[in-house]
Design a protein that fits this description.
heterotrimer, A mainly alpha, B mainly alpha, C alpha/beta, B: disordered N terminus, C: 5-stranded parallel β-sheet, two-stranded parallel ribbon, elongated
Chain lengths: 203, 203, 214
């Protein structure tokens, strides 16, 4: 049986929408379990007190990345049918900077804001409204900045292609970087917990 | 009350003030005072990684979030001013010539799932709270304003970059897309740059 | 803040170990699968075709072979039996499906040919989609090779020096040159209208954009 199943016609559009809901439920579940629906916990990342964002994201990336590699290696998954987000160098760097500033200001990202709102957090709701406004502003400005938004396109460019390394080497490299980052995160958190200054501990 | 927390009178006073502030702003909908501890971010991350991998295996695509916001905005603009929407390339991308309801979209359904999953997890863990997550250093209103502004910035940034931390960070991260990794790095840079300006908001 | 999370060091360490094993083995394994997705810059390709930089003439190819051009790979896209009957010296037989999958030499110059040139043009497109830049095809195919190299009919009005050059080339390949009176005309392969590289493969590269970003 070859994956991706949808790409090989195993089920249709309507079923795919059901799949979307189910995957979303699991996604939202784990996000809340990890505390990503709480802006105060999440923002700890940017003050080096609580690096759960880094740990959670990197763990997810490594897990899925290894899964993609090995399923493909085993001949169970056709990697060429898997969607790789396209690269637009300049817009993604600029967009990233703006997004990051907004992330630190809001304390939540688009996905986690929905979790926050679902669990009663008013700041989650405010952020959602803000996002809709931001998208609208962008949409209205699009005729003017569309040219920039479509610039420096590189298509489905992957790290192995960019570095001229084999896919497996990059996979191994990412795992190494992730584990190093986790070790660093643990060290930073331990350092933050030492009472150098009286820290407010909130349960 | 939050002004007390910021005086030089001492952090101890600040702690007491913030508890009072919390009590004043929360209306619990569950009787249980104890909330369950969050899960390990590593395990929650691996859980999300499995969900992400399932998305690849079933659909040939990854998860996302910001795209759902675009569909909502496009649908709203189309309802309010159809001719305006039709003339704007950004909106038409989400409207498919009126053939289908723009809200009948994979990401929209996924986000609905995220809300359900987050809700379920919080209910079972006793973490439902109608409140505003903020530090003692600012007021509720200020926090909500920050959330709105942050959300707007993220809306613009996500559309420029064609994704957010879920779509580019997780999906692009796992598929080793160059632009996605650039986006994530830029987002962290932007966040860490903005964070010092908002320190008071989280303390 | 981190005190609010329940940690399970045992499971976490086990997962980390799995990740390490998975990562190390990945480096060893190298490639998950042969990549089957190609991409093309259609503007650039159109320019190349328009400037006729996509093909070579039979005479050019013959000179490359005779002069032992380094890293030249001549690929025959026809059937086994046809290849066995006759093929351009030095050519290897590679069916189109193999063209899509075969390992590539980035320093090589590929020249594809087929019977008339259509299949070779398709193979050209596939290799371009796979990222190969030094690839050409014989536009007139084997017909052109036979007519221009193996059995050229040269008008008597051609300058002597040029005739000698053509004859030398033909003899080198074991062919025979014939001089004809300018009165008789022989249709030459390059005059035949042949289709441009097929766009059918562009379908595969440019996926249906139903899935929007993220």
């Amino acid at each position: 049986m070859m994956a991706p199943l949808y790409e090989f016609g195993r089920f249709g559009d309507s079923a795919s929408l059901v799949v979307a809901v189910l995957l979303g439920i699991a996604f939202g579940w784990f996000l809340e379990q990890g505390g990503m629906g709480n802006a105060r916990k999440l923002s700890g990342q940017f003050y080096f007190t609580d690096l759960s964002v880094l740990k959670l994201m990197f763990s997810a990336i490594v897990t899925a990345m290894l899964g993609l590699f090995w399923l493909s290696w085993a001949g169970l998954l056709d990697l060429s049918r898997v969607y790789v987000p396209e690269t637009f160098i300049a817009p993604q760097i600029v967009g990233g900077l703006v997004f990051g500033a907004g992330f630190a200001t809001g304390g939540l990202c688009p996905g986690t804001s929905c979790v926050a709102a679902a669990t009663g957090r008013k700041d989650g709701l405010a952020l959602i409204v803000g996002m809709l406004a931001g998208v609208f502003v962008f949409g209205e400005a699009f005729p003017a900045i569309g040219h920039f938004a479509d610039s420096t396109a590189r298509g489905a460019w992957t790290l192995p292609q960019a570095f001229g390394l084999s896919y497996g080497t990059v996979v191994g490299g990412v795992v190494a970087v992730a584990l190093g980052a986790f070790a660093g995160a643990e060290w930073l958190e331990r350092r933050a917990e030492r009472p150098a200054r009286p820290m407010k501990v909130v349960a | 009350m939050s002004d007390v927390a910021t005086t030089a009178a001492g952090q101890a006073l600040g702690t007491a003030a913030s508890s009072r502030a919390d009590a004043a702003t929360t209306t619990r909908i569950r009787v249980r005072r104890e909330t369950a501890p969050y899960a390990s971010p590593y395990l929650a991350g691996v859980g999300i990684g499995v969900v992400l991998l399932l998305a690849f295996v079933l659909m040939g695509r990854g998860l996302g979030a910001s795209g759902a916001f675009s569909s909502v905005v496009a649908a709203a603009v189309n309802t309010a001013a159809p001719s305006h929407a039709a003339g704007n390339v950004f909106y038409t991308r989400y409207l498919s010539d009126g053939a289908a309801n723009p809200l009948r979209d994979w990401l929209v359904l996924e986000i609905i799932g995220v809300v359900i999953g987050g809700l379920a997890s919080a209910v079972l863990a006793g973490r439902m709270r109608w409140t505003t997550e903020r530090g003692a250093g600012i007021t509720d209103r200020r926090r909500l304003a920050n959330a709105f502004v942050g959300g707007t910035a993220m809306g613009v940034g996500a559309k420029l970059a064609r994704g957010c931390t879920s779509g580019l960070g997780l999906t692009g991260g796992a598929t080793l897309s160059v632009g996605s990794w650039l986006f994530v790095i830029a987002a962290f840079v932007g966040a860490y740059a903005a964070a010092p300006l908002l320190r008071r908001a989280w303390r | 803040m981190t005190a609010d999370a329940r940690r399970r060091p045992g499971i976490e360490r086990a997962l980390a170990a799995v990740a390490v094993i998975g990562g190390v083995l990945a480096v060893v394994a190298g490639s998950p699968a042969r990549p089957t997705r190609g991409s093309v810059d259609v503007t650039e390709l159109a320019r190349i075709v328009e400037h006729e930089e996509d093909h070579v003439t039979a005479v050019e190819l013959a000179r490359w072979i005779r002069d032992d051009k380094p890293r030249l790979r001549v690929l025959d896209i026809r059937a086994d039996s046809e290849f066995a009957d006759f093929h351009i010296p030095g050519a290897t037989r590679v069916p189109l499906a193999e063209i899509a999958r075969m390992p590539l030499d980035s320093a090589a110059t590929y020249v594809l040919y087929s019977e008339g040139g259509t299949h070779a043009a398709q193979g050209w497109f596939l290799l371009r989609a796979r990222g190969v830049k030094n690839v050409f095809f014989l536009r007139g195919g084997l017909y052109e090779w036979l007519e221009q190299v193996m059995n050229p009919h040269v008008p008597s009005t051609t300058p002597q020096a040029q005739r000698d050059s053509i004859r030398a080339l033909t003899l080198w390949f074991g062919g025979k040159m014939t001089v004809v009176d300018s009165a008789s005309t022989v249709p030459s392969a390059p005059d035949r209208e042949l289709s441009a590289p097929h766009k059918s493969d562009a379908r595969e590269s440019i996926r249906k954009i139903r899935r929007r970003a993220c």
